[in-house]
Amino acid sequence: MLHLRVVCPADRADAAVGLLRAHPGVTHLVMFPGAALDPEGDVIEADLAREAADDVLSGLCDLGVDHDGGVTLEQIDTVLSDAGDRAERRAPGEAADAVVWEELVARTGEESRLNTTFLAFLTIACLLAAVGVITDSPVTIVGAMVVGPEFGPLAALAVGLVRRRRDLVRRAGLALGVGFPLAIAVTAAGAWLGTLAGMFDASAITGDGHEADFVYQVGPWSLVVAVLAGAAGMLSMTSAKSAALVGVFISVTTVPAAGYIGVAAILGEWGKVFGSAAQLAVNLLGIVLAAALVLVLRHGVRAPGDSGRPLSDG
Questions:
Q1: CA angle, corner 75, sides to 71 and 79, nearest 5?
Q2: Alpha carbon of 85 to those of 31, 73, 75, 170, 272: distances in Å?
Q3: Measured on CA atoms in the order 61, 67, 69, 75, is the torsion positive or negative?
Q4: CB distance 252 to 192 below 8 Å
Q5: What is the pLDDT of residue 309?
Q6: Fewest CB atoms within 10 Å of the CB: 43, 202, 259, 279?
Q7: Does domain 2-96 have CATH number 3.40.50.720?
């Protein structure tokens, strides 16, 4: 279940309480008149089944509570209550299949921010991938996949396209458009310093029998894996089963391809540069399209609950 907390202007508190009372998936309703100081108003709290969240949030947003007050949701790990059990039974649908659109928009919006942390993780991941390529170490390449933070912006692109949220698409596009070129440039600089120090030469990636060659060998299976990973990733995010995201991270070769571009460019292996770039593009496109398709097939473009408010840059 989810715990709902609403700071509501006093003139709309009765309507908000009525909305919550009327929904079969809501229970443990509590009201504190005049308890809110900034912004001023009443505080309303309730517990609700996850599958009821979109209807409730949509109704509260229709009342303008999100503009003149505030709405917060948090996950409840344990509920010992017959009333809570009844609310979950009465709520339509299954909790595992329910999407809280406001939560999804907020989460993907946060994870797609272009900030120092995102750039640092992506750059470190690409450097790890470069080390894996140079040393022909699949284990290091897998580690780079796990470290890479790129799925957040890719999921945000999918959500933004489906919900027609230009602000979300713009934020995610900026993160990817700046993040990958910067990470590749830093990786190339590191590879250049490595060649100057005599740590490796072109033989590290030329010749046959390298286990890391799969990174630049793009083909139909690259798209298949990207599509499956994108679908699994979005299913994980919408069903709150985040453990599956680790499998998504180590399924696709976005970060390894970016790292390979930096190394191959310094060594003058332009065929492998173009192959890695194609691999990167196929993976990015496949993940976004599959994730968007999952949202459309499972929940539809016009699902309730998204207030359409622009994302904060703060």
A1: 115
A2: 21, 19, 16, 41, 58
A3: positive
A4: no
A5: 60
A6: 202
A7: no
Helix/strand/coil (H, E, C) string of the chain?
A: CEEEEEEECHHHHHHHHHHHHHCCCEEEEEEEEEEEECCEEEEEEEEECHHHHHHHHHHHHHCCHHHHCEEEEEECCCCCCHHHHHHHHHCCCCHHHCCCHHHHHHHHHHHCCCCHHHHHHHHHHHHHHHHHHHHCCHHHHHHHHHHCCCHHHHHHHHHHHHHCCHHHHHHHHHHHHHHHHHHHHHHHHHHHHHHHCCCCCHHHCCCCCCHHHHHCCCCHHHHHHHHHHHHHHHHHHHCCCCCHHHHHHCCCCHHHHHHHHHHHHHHCCHHHHHHHHHHHHHHHHHHHHHHHHHHHHHHCCCCCCCCCCCCCCC
Domain regions of the chain by residue span: 2-96, 103-299
Q: What is the mean pLDDT of the chain?
A: 87
- In this predicted structure, what is the pLDDT of residue 301? 45
Q: Are 180 and 132 in contact (CB under 8 A)?
A: no
CA dist., res. 133 & res. 131, Å (int): 5
Residue 233, token pair as written in the block? 């990733």
What is the model's pTM? 0.81
- How close are the terminal C-alpha atoms of the chain, in Å? 29
Backbone angles phi, psi at 237, to 5 degrees: -70, -40
What is the mean predicted confidence (pLDDT) over 37-46?
94
Residue 236 pLDDT more than 60? yes
Q: What is the pLDDT of residue 100?
A: 75
User: Quick check: 109 and 168 in contact, CB under 8 A?
Assistant: yes
Polymer length in residues for the chain: 314
